């Protein structure tokens, strides 16, 4: 478990302290995939680097499994860092080392593994990231997705309990992004590793994260389970991110809604209710007519969800609302 | 042909070439030995680097700059008392080595600093995140990653030392430069001058070619 207790970070620029992270409380549970989303400059990069103390905080406590790591001496810090893997947007592989040597590198640095142990572990990791055939290539001979796989294998070498991902898919094309995210999800499930992932793409959060924190101007403005934050965003920044990921133009949406007649509702189906043929039966029972203004059916991690914006005209509106409620559908009255 | 190169004593040219080789070889070895750690220190103590030390950097940088800004011909003369103290003579091949190193080491140190700065900061960060010590970062990541740049730096330094070594002929340093000055310049033997210059050109060409090959071999980018 990672606990931030009033952690803050500021930089000294020309004698003045410029805050990069305002005092923040945050808890990341063991074994979860925690997303941190924000625009560039929002402080998410700083936040993730505070966890392995690449950036020392200027205030507050960081507790990893109950232990305050901020006061660690250099030797303790190095031992701690071996238990925290990290992958990067631009991979940061050593160009002078082969794929196998890159993966072996953290184990060699640790100085506690025998040659045979290192060889076996490298073989195992190469197989896990499906790069066994590329063991003796140099990073420059690999594609972006392959490089990130090497990065992941390298990060896992010393069997860490936490994996930090710094915009790990931002330099990859959509298809490669998907395969890297799937690999991360598999690792999380099979190894029980805690993953902290920062990104500016809400889509990445939707696919792999359990919980998410939204950052804006050095502050966490919203935090919670992905389905809550994603389906019912409260803060304007969160809303921007959600709209952006769904290709919704906020302005256009407002104009569309103004043209529609009657009562406008936003229905959110989650899990099983997504598959129920609900709209037709509610319309028959209550006698309301509906037209669909916008809609989307997708998955949040493994949970299917649907979100429909409807305008309802005529019939018994109260009865319709009750029926939606009874079917476990979240109803939000837009107008 | 006999008449054209009548002044050229090939045995003398052979000895002089060997002397130049020895001067350049030894002074290059010492320049690298001394310049490399200085270059690494310059890099590490620099702004926003691993061991940021503004005072140490300023002092080191100042010494390097002073040695680099003194024209080599002056450095040759200024160094004479030190050379005599160190080696016992300021003449010949041995006497030329200390001023050559004084000129070559700071030059190479700057080149090392520059090539280390070109290593992606992300690689240093990644290595730090693995729990590496500063020493491990230097020897495990920085130097291997900067190796092609450092080899290119050694090549440039070697070529600079060839011309410095030739210059040392002025204060009696031996080698091809000495030959060119004593015979080609002072005795107006143009043919000797031409031959020595041609040999120096070939020497530089070979150095550059070998250097380029090595850089290519060690570049994995």
From TrEMBL, chain A:
Compartments in which it is found: Cell inner membrane
InterPro entries given in the database record: AAA+_ATPase, ABC_transporter-like_ATP-bd, ABC_transporter-like_CS, ACT-like_dom_sf, MetN_ABC, MetN_ABC_transporter-like, NIL_domain, P-loop_NTPase
UniProt entry tagged with the keyword Flavoprotein: no
Gene3D superfamilies assigned: 3.30.70.260, P-loop containing nucleotide triphosphate hydrolases (3.40.50.300)
Primary location: membrane
Keyword Acyltransferase: no
ABC transporter domain: residues covered: 2-242
Pfam families registered for this protein in UniProt: ABC_tran (PF00005), NIL (PF09383)
UniProt keywords, alphabetically: Amino-acid transport, ATP-binding, Cell inner membrane, Cell membrane, Membrane, Nucleotide-binding, Translocase, Transport
Domain of life: Bacteria
Membrane topology listed for this record: Peripheral membrane protein
Protein name per Swiss-Prot or TrEMBL: Methionine ABC transporter ATP-binding protein
Species this protein is from: Marinobacter koreensis
TrEMBL record, chain B:
InterPro entries xref list: AA_ABC_Transporter_Permease, MetI-like, MetI-like_sf
Keyword terms: Cell membrane, Membrane, Transmembrane, Transmembrane helix, Transport
Membrane topology per record: Multi-pass membrane protein
TM region(s), chain numbering: 20-44, 56-80, 86-111, 192-211
Gene3D superfamilies the UniProt entry points to: MetI-like (1.10.3720.10)
Source superkingdom: Bacteria
UniProt subcellular location: Cell membrane
Domain ABC transmembrane type-1: 17-211
NCBIfam families: PRK10782.1
PANTHER family xrefs: ABC TRANSPORTER PERMEASE, D-METHIONINE TRANSPORT SYSTEM PERMEASE PROTEIN METI-RELATED
Family, similarity comment: Belongs to the binding-protein-dependent transport system permease family.
Protein name: Methionine ABC transporter permease
